[in-house]
Amino acid sequence: MNQPPGGFWAQATAHPDRTVLIAPDGEEWSAGRLHADVNRMVHGLRAAGLREGDAFAVVLPNGVELLTAYLAASQAGFYLVPVNHHLVGPEIAWIVADSGARVLIAHERFAGTATAAADEAELPATHRYGVGTAPGCRPYTELLEGHPGTPPDGRTLGWVMNYTSGTTGRPRGIRRPLPGQRPEETYLGGFLGIFGIRPFDGNVHLVCSPLYHTAVLQFAGAALHIGHPLVLMDGWAPEEMLRTIDAHRATHTHMVPTQFHRLLALPDNVKARYDVSSMRHAIHGAAPCPDHVKRAMIDWWGSCVEEYYAASEGGGAFATAEDWLKKPGTVGKAWPISELAVFDDDGNRLAAGELGTVYMKMSTGGFSYHKDEAKTRKNRIGDFFTVGDLGVLDEDGYLFLRDRKIDMIIAGGVNIYPAEIESALLTHPAVADAAAFGIPHADRGEEVKAVVEPAEGHVPSEALAVALLAHCEERLAGYKRPRSLDFITAMPRDPNGKLYKRRLREPYWEGHERPL
User: Fold this and answer.
1) Contact assessment for residue 452 and residue 485, using Cβ atoms and an 8 Å cutoff
2) What's the pLDDT score for residue 403?
3) Averaged over 480-501, what is the pLDDT?
4) Cα distance between residue 445 and residue 417, in whole Å
5) How far apart are CA 34 and CA 380, in angstroms?
6) Of 245, 261, 264, nearest to 253 (Cα)?
7) pTM to 2 decimals?
8) What is the DSSP string of 427-445?
9) What is the pLDDT of residue 191?
């Protein structure tokens, strides 16, 4: 077989005994078994009242339940809203309420937070389901039991609606219009063709990052639809990744530079213990990769180390190892389904070699930010959109990034927006003004630093710093929380109130090369 017969569903019908998923605990799932559970979930969600265009949210680790939800949404015209399970209750509640999710599925590990979020979002207890022991939720099995494993009527393609944070401090859902097609009428694995990954062809896709991330789920879903078995890791460790690649002869995966850094830090005898020669595509993105790390990975893993540039809103550029070695620092050329351009602040398209704001355009359709028409219209030039990165296109069409979204922090490949942190700090009565930004971290690239101007009557002290960090702990997910906090007499602002954040940040970066 060299062409995918209609995606996962057709493959499952034609070859129900083929293994398509290996769960983190090693359990193997056949196509027929997974297909039946996907169908049962569609029937169960419809019985709960969901109709085409409705959304449901999941707070789940990497596992069969999340892939079941993805496939169910994809064939029932639903929007799947994957929620980052590191978020705290109010953050999850915002996403559940804003998305209009009519059902929530949560794992027992996150049940307490998810249940509190569902209470705040006023989601009825009858529409909450828990995997494992999850007080306040109906058992997940009740969503599937009693429903047939046969395909539902009226099958139509649905989408994933990921939430991306913004400078306003509130994440927004990226909502694409439903095409009104049967799932088989769309080539759902075509995305991987951008990277030269072909259907079947002995490929095995390793999922080594959380599936709630846009790219991770997109890569995994596309691989499944073109006949590649998925091997799931629930939690990442460098040696365990090497062992898993060796054991399952994995051929492709999606990574971030922090994972490269930690793999390279392993002792040489540990690296030599595992055979990674099966890898054909180790595709990395989500954060800048230092040149020395990229070169070391290419030296070790060879030409499979590839890079892309994109956003949750769309993409993008792609660079093979050969491209990068020829043009060090590039993030590649435009995807076949995308166009790249660089514009100045007046909206004029710039020539090769001129620095400006990077814009992208997708030929596969547009998107909108859910319930935020102003943000949807903002940062557009015609059909092009930008996420605010600065860069240069050379005469051959290769993109080089020169800066990134103003003030955004990238820690271990995760985007962190200071506005959320600053907003949380400013709710404390001892804080008159606050700023958050990234400072150097040897392993994760950056970590979050907060600087606070104390309110009148409050004196800077270690005790106050501890209290403010504890205040953040109650309001922000762990990865967003400041790791340290300093005080300042007065924030450097201009007469119009603009904060000169660079003045705050630069002293911490002395002697360090700040990643783009």
Assistant:
1) yes
2) 58
3) 82
4) 15
5) 41
6) 245
7) 0.82
8) TSTTEEEEEEEEEEETTTE
9) 82
